[in-house]
Amino acid sequence: MDKFMQAAIDEAREGMEHNHGGPFGAIIVRDGKIVSRSHNEVLLTNDPTAHAEVLAIRKASEILENFDLSDCEIYTSSQPCPMCLAAIYWSRIKKVYFGTNKEDVAVIGFDDSRFYKLIRGEEDKNPLEIVNIDRKECLGLLREWEEKSDKKMY
Ligand SMILES: [Zn+2]
């Protein structure tokens, strides 16, 4: 058994036993060492985005004082949901190790696979209304950013 995945499982169990959230844990590793560890805290904080992967990324970025985690890897006890996957892309992490897959978590009521389908346009009923308004005015912000002399790209 992989020691980092074992750490992700231990973290998940810790959160589950304290009713912090679902049975999900994540570990971020750099140079063979654990940088951060987190578990799902949706129930503890009432934050629907408090998934283990997102929290592990936030902690690692804070510890490393860097928003770019391209030299890190993430171990997560379950396949990342679309939100966490996007957060992983934003963090520039290059490798994800996951334990259970989205079908496994759907069986216990965490239906990430539905969000995957919605994003791919494979669901008939989208519960989210998405409306594009005031593009021109919002575009002004992008122009201001482009012209900002002290901007830092990420
Ligand atoms: Zn997630």
TrEMBL record:
Protein name stated in the entry: Nucleoside deaminase
Record-annotated CMP/dCMP-type deaminase domain positions: 1-123
Annotated family: Belongs to the cytidine and deoxycytidylate deaminase family.
GO biological process: purine nucleoside catabolic process
Any one GO molecular function term: zinc ion binding
Key words, A-Z: Hydrolase, Metal-binding, Zinc
CDD domains, alphabetized: nucleoside_deaminase
Domain of life (superkingdom): Archaea
PROSITE patterns in the cross-refs: CYT_DCMP_DEAMINASES_1, CYT_DCMP_DEAMINASES_2
Segments forming a coiled coil: none
